[in-house]
Amino acid sequence: MPAFPEVEKIVYEGPESRNPLAFRHYNPEEIVEGLSMRDHFRFSVAYWHTFRGGGADPFGPPTAQRPWEGPEDNVENAVNRVSVAFEFMEKLGVGFYCFHDRDVAPEGSSLAETNRNLDTVVAALKGEQQRTGIQLLWGTANLFSNPRYVHGAATSCNADAFAFAAAQVKKALEVTKELGGSGYTFWGGREGYQNLWNTDLKRELDHLARFMHMAVDYAKEIGFTGQFYFEPKPKEPTKHQYDYDAANCINFLRSYGLTDHIKLNIETNHATLAGHTMQHELEYAASQGFLGSIDANTGDLLLGWDTDQFPTDIYLTTQCMLALMKYGGLAPGGVNFDAKVRRESFEPLDLFYAHIGGMDAFARGLKIAAAIRADGVLDKMLKERYGSWDSGIGAEIEAGQHGFASLEKYMLEKGDITPNTSGRQELIENIINTYV
């Protein structure tokens, strides 16, 4: 029996459509800059929020109506949930999904039982992947919910917690490989500190690096060739997390010899918690060669926590797509909707409305970004602004032909700088508004 009997397959009906269960802008077959929309985005559904999220918050219990959930989180219920998830994804028309190990299978009374539970559900996931063609974008392990990780996992002061986390990631890597996952993500939800008085920060960072090298080594051992990702986030649940932002993560990777193995999975709401924009994080990561995948959501700027709302801001999606297209796209990563419906949006149908809105918003962002790139207005203004670096003294500096002494000689002879030109910020903002 279908879980969503009132929903047919979501199709593209065009901008004039008023059907809330149809795409107005996302046409998977439409070609933009030589790629189909489907291939530009590689849209993915987050198993945790979409199928497991109940709508609880610090002030109240779950509100979501999820008829497919049984009275307890057992293996039978987890297997039944797999068919629900793939019905949803098949009707939505996405090609990928992401999961934590504990999203798809419950923990048992021992590690051995937990692994058996996961194997049972993975068999069901594999069958549905083969039936539908939907693929695993990336897998990961939940190293933050169980009380054993109260002090962290790879950075715990308890060596047994480190060992248990290693065993859990070992299994998660194995099942990700079995399911053909394109990548594997590490999010250090409790890899950080609440209080520096009782924290050996350097030792914890060294342990985190050792853990990551173990993961790299084991991936090679089992032949897992998917891309590893770090997902930056500055805080929440810890006061300070070691994977603070893109720059912090890249510094860690360079410091510990991990640059050849790990890229970044950038999330919008995490960027704003770090005091950045998504545009900044994408540009920084991509400019350094570390952009791998993105979690598509947004936060409420009036609230100071990770609200994980669906992205509907066209300016945001345009900024995202300009950055992604500039640096050659995301594959083997994708656009994963790490977003949840609001607690007040509790009916199963709201899951479709939310994802349709996010996919349409990204489709509009893609087309706007392509138009901006085709016209070349911003590129022309950028080139003019940095024109002094394309010839003369600027080109010589970039070519490494000068030091302080020669530049002093140059300025002594010239006397003063060539006058600055206006940055034209307001004009640029006006120009962007003509496309949106």
| Class of secondary structure makeup | alpha/beta
Question: Termini distance?
Answer: 43 Å
Helix content: 40-55%
- The radius of gyration is 24 Å
Q: What oligomeric assembly is this protein in?
A: single chain
Strand content: 5-15%
Give the biggest sheet: 8 strands, parallel, barrel
Order of helices and strands: EEHEHHEHHEHEEHEEHEHHEHEHHHHH
**Mean pLDDT level:** 97
Shape: globular
Query: Helix tally?
Result: 16
Lateral arrangement of strands in the main beta sheet: 3-4-5-6-8-10-11-12
Instruction: Say how many strands there are.
Output: 12
Word description of this protein:
There is one protein chain. The chain is an alpha/beta fold and 436 residues long. 46% of the residues lie in helices and 10% in strands. It has helices at 37-41, 47-52, 75-92, 101-104, 111-132, 159-178, 201-222, 246-255, 268-273, 278-287, 314-326, 349-375, 377-385, 392-398, 404-414, 425-435, and strands at residues 31-32, 35-36, 43-46, 96-100, 135-140, 183-186, 192-193, 227-230, 240-241, 262-267, 291-295, 335-337. Strands 3-4-5-6-8-10-11-12 form an eight-stranded parallel β-barrel, surrounded by four helices. Strands 1-2 form a two-stranded antiparallel sheet. Strands 7-9 form a two-stranded antiparallel sheet. β11, α11 (314-326) and β12 (335-337) form a beta-alpha-beta unit. α6 runs parallel beside α7 (201-222), α10 (278-287) runs parallel beside α11 (314-326) and α11 (314-326) crosses α12. The protein is globular. The mean pLDDT is 97.
